[in-house]
Automatic annotation (TrEMBL):
A Pfam family per the record: DUF1244
Domain SMc04008-like: start-end pairs: 30-95
Protein name stated in the entry: SMc04008-like domain-containing protein
Family annotation (InterPro entries): SMc04008-like_domain, SMc04008-like_sf
Length: 101
């Protein structure tokens, strides 16, 4: 494989990010707690990283705006449509695996 230019790498990373966001929007059956328990991040984490990237570039982006960019709708709407109550097992697993600050 040939070395990528910075621009090519950025473009590929951006395309992969857009595909990930699209995939997560389609997979509304996958709950955030499942993602946290298996991968250590969820849609909310991704929206926080998105907002962090904006702040690093002096772009003012609210928490609601960054979540809308990831969820494709207001977070409250996504929760009402797709979020299910976490089971006791899911909550217990999250307590064991949750990120420690």
């Amino acid at each position: 494989m040939s070395a990528l230019t910075e621009e090519e790498q950025r473009d590929l990373e951006a395309a992969a990010f857009r595909r990930l966001v699209s995939h997560l929007r389609e997979r509304t059956d996958v709950q955030n707690i499942d993602m946290m328990n298996l991968a250590g991040f969820c849609r909310n984490c991704l929206s926080n990283w998105y907002r962090d990237a904006a702040e690093e570039r002096d772009i003012n982006l609210s928490k609601d705006e960054s979540r809308r960019a990831i969820y494709g709708m207001d977070y409250s709407e996504w929760k009402a449509r797709y979020q299910r109550e976490a089971s006791a097992d899911q909550r217990a697993q999250f307590e064991v695996n949750k990120p420690r600050d």
